Amino acid sequence: MQLISYARHQFPPEIIQQAIWLYLRFTLSYRDVEELLAERGLEVSYETIRQWVLKFGPAFAHNLRRLRPRPTGTWHLDEMVIAIQGRRLYLWRAVDSEGKILDILVQSRRDKAAALKLMRKLLKKQGVAPSVLVTDKLPSYGAAGRELGLSAHHEQGLRKNNRAENSHQVVRRRERKMQGFKSPGSAQRFLSTHSAVYNTFNLQRHLISRRTLRLFRTEVANHWHQATVAA
């Protein structure tokens, strides 16, 4: 676990953690979080909250990823178009069969080289290869898989890849709230941090009982505490 130091900050760690949690957990702007904190008697500017997210968010995400179990063996890969300052880019993503985001990569192309970069990053980060790979009919996925020598069963088809398609909706909501991403680098940093928090708190509540939901919420709260506790 990466140790978190809150030294030389005016506000206590609990306030910083709450502000970051609100911004990353819900579809809120920095000004929204500022107002929520002000309602609780905490005068914090939206710019201060932005600096907290930029400074502590990646460290929180790193620790949350360390606490996640291994992904399932079925990986869904897909790409979506995003516009950044009038430039057409592609957001490549991979999720497992439970909808957990494995990785996100902003790239300028939609070709074999881009698919290869995503797959290499996935294999390095996850440490295991998938048993089943589900994609749309873009030929780049198959070509990249063959170059890497993957033995995974490759399934193709739009309907089969609904798991990845649905995962794009979360990004679209944040993209609209932020009025678009400002640069490829900032989009990559935010989405990498946001995905770790999303994975932790996305409990698929419609599939579980109320009692199980309470247990899961206690567990994720403990994970958040472990990931953000002061050194």
How many distinct beta strands? 5
CATH topology of the largest domain, anyone? Nucleotidyltransferase, domain 5
Radius of gyration: 19 Å
Strand order of the largest sheet: 3-2-1-4-5
CATH architecture of the largest domain: 2-Layer Sandwich
Order of SSEs: HHHEEEHEHEHHH
Name the average pLDDT: 91
Which band does the percent of strand residues land in?
A: 15-25%
The secondary structure category is alpha/beta
Work out the count of structural domains. 2
| Total number of helices | 8
List the helices and strands and how they pair.
Layout: H1 13-25, H2 30-39, H3 46-67, E1 74-84, E2 87-96, E3 101-107, H4 112-126, E4 132-135, H5 139-148, E5 153-156, H6 162-177, H7 184-201, H8 210-228
Parallel strand pairs: 1-4, 4-5
Antiparallel strand pairs: 1-2, 2-3
Helix pairs in contact: 1-3, 2-3, 3-7, 3-8, 4-5
